[in-house]
Amino acid sequence: MQKTNKYPALDAIKILMAFLVVGIHTGTITNAQYPWALDILMSTAVPFFFFCSGFLLQNKIISKQAELNIIQKYLQKTLKLYILWHLIYLPVDLRYMFHGNNTLWEDLIIYIKMLLLNGETYFTWPLWYLHGLLVSVIIIWILRKLRTPLPLIWILSIGIMIWGQFGRNGLYQGFFCVTTGILIRQYLPQLPFHIKDNPIYLTLRIHSALIYFLHMYIVLFMFALYKDNQHPYFSWLIVFFITWLISYIIDILRKKNSFHWINHLI
Length: 266
What we know:
With 266 residues, the chain is mainly alpha-helical. The protein has one domain (8-89, 124-265). The chain has 11 helices and no strands. The chain has helices at 8-30, 36-42, 45-64, 67-88, 90-97, 104-117, 128-145, 150-163, 170-187, 199-225, 232-253. Helix 1 runs parallel beside helix 10 (199-225), helix 3 crosses helix 9 and helix 8 packs antiparallel against helix 9 (170-187). The longest helix is centred in the last third of the chain and has 27 residues, at 199-225. The radius of gyration is 19 Å and the shape is globular. 29% of the residues are buried. The model has no long low-confidence stretch (mean pLDDT 89).
């Protein structure tokens, strides 16, 4: 039986945001100079994913009326995703960890610091989102355990964001965006924009997650083959569509019993 999707518009936007994230990362490697309007649009991509996470977390809390337990389970799932995806990218990390002048222990300490402090290692750039989500939801869980009202948590998140000068991490950016999503869902059951539900939107949700997490492997592979004369927009499109094709194949495989374990990655 097909699940009902209450917010298909969010899933439709997610695929666009995944496309923008791919552009950010291919652009970093190609030294792309995007127009200012596109830069601004790109800067909304990961905050949108944070917002969706908060919005949908609160939606689950409202439907099941067990706030702290749901938040704990959400943290456990996010931590599992964080560990699994870092394991998937471990071959890339190992490739770059031991090619400098550092000792083995120095490289390991640097690696552990990156995992704990910002969630990014050498080329696992998308995974800072999961680290930021963990940080944000842990803070919210502690504050809700202390019975702090949601509006007060939101005001606190604004203060921390300003104090951190809108920094790109879970405390300064993620906390505000996740809390905003939670607050909007608490007081706005329906989004101001709505589209008719269709099974394609659930598929887009899966594909956008896989594209977001997988694309750095395609970026690295492509630029290892062609180091020079990379056109930023062409590279962006090629990486996106190759990753989407792989995501489509993975989506088909995950529905088979022998590949059901893939569902733990999304």
